[in-house]
Amino acid sequence: MALVKLGDIELDCERSGAGPPLLLIMGMSGTTLHWGEPFLDALRQDFEVIVYDHRGVGASSRLKGPITIRELAEDAADLLAALGIDSAHVLGISMGGMIAQELALAYPERLRTLSLGCTHCGGQGSLHPAPDVLQRLAEGMMSGDREQAIRVAWEVNVSPGFAANPDAWARFLEIGLRRPVSVQVIMAQLRAITQHDTRERLAQLALATLIVHGTVDEMIPVQNGHLIAGLIPSARLEILEGIGHLFFWEQPERSAELVRTHAAVHA
Questions:
Q1: What residues does 48 pair with on adjacent strands?
Q2: How many degrees, rounded to 5, is the angle at CA 220 between CA 140 and CA 198?
Q3: What CATH number corresponds to the domain at position 7?
Q4: Total number of domains in the chain
């Protein structure tokens, strides 16, 4: 990882692999480590993979006050410019998918293709987590027990069957303990998400767009994937049966192949 200066802030960034550039934009409370090595390794075979930590996360600049999804999209655009990349394939998941939507709407010429995973567009028709899911997450965060908070996040972000995988859980726990994200940053990100709304603008997108969503996603229900697919002209929707929010953890090879094929078809 290396710090990249973007005006008044710095973002911690890593480039690896070989091929056309692929920018990965992480979701709420996530870090570059949360992409998981199996998924990244599969992508590195075909792309120069670019990952980074948002403001307030890891070694990136501290978050000072509120933030918006549009401002985070400007960070992504500035990062590409600072790295000397004129255009890139872009994959955003969850909050990162919202950032990717704003990035594509503001700078369509900077994106070769767009892939949106487990995300929503906001506005009318978007579905949010069920109240019991939000309560579990809040109780975990406020418990003061970091391992308990990570366990709750794990259980609501993957399918029940995958949640019972001890090796996968051990990897997720280690990542959460190694690079924690503060509650203050998570709450700022959550406030940004609640204000996100691209619903009426997605019809403007002429980019080749792939949408990936798991059917048992508790964080962002699968109906959101169907909604976005209906709003973006010629979008392709890939539904993963029995898969949760972190689809790229549960099916890293298949997820990488979806991105790879989408990029190749629209090269």
A1: 17, 21
A2: 125
A3: 3.40.50.1820
A4: 1
Segment 115-151, tens digit of pLDDT: 999 999 999 999 999 999 999 998 988 888 899 999 9
Q: Which two tokens stand for residue 15?
A: 């480039």
Supply 54's token pair: 């948002």
| pTM, rounded to two decimals | 0.97
The whole-angstrom separation of Cα 224 and Cα 120 is: 5
Question: Could you report the per-residue pLDDT of 227-244, keeping only the tens digit for each?
Answer: 999 999 989 999 999 999
Count helices and strands (H / E) in the chain: 11, 8
Give the C-alpha separation, 263 to 152, whole Å. 34
Measure the CA–CA gap between 120 and 13, rounded to whole angstroms: 25
**Is residue 203 assigned to a domain?**
yes
In sequence order, which residues have a C-beta less than 8 Å from that of residue 137 and are 6 or more positions away? Answer: 129, 152, 153, 156
Residue 26 lies in a domain: yes
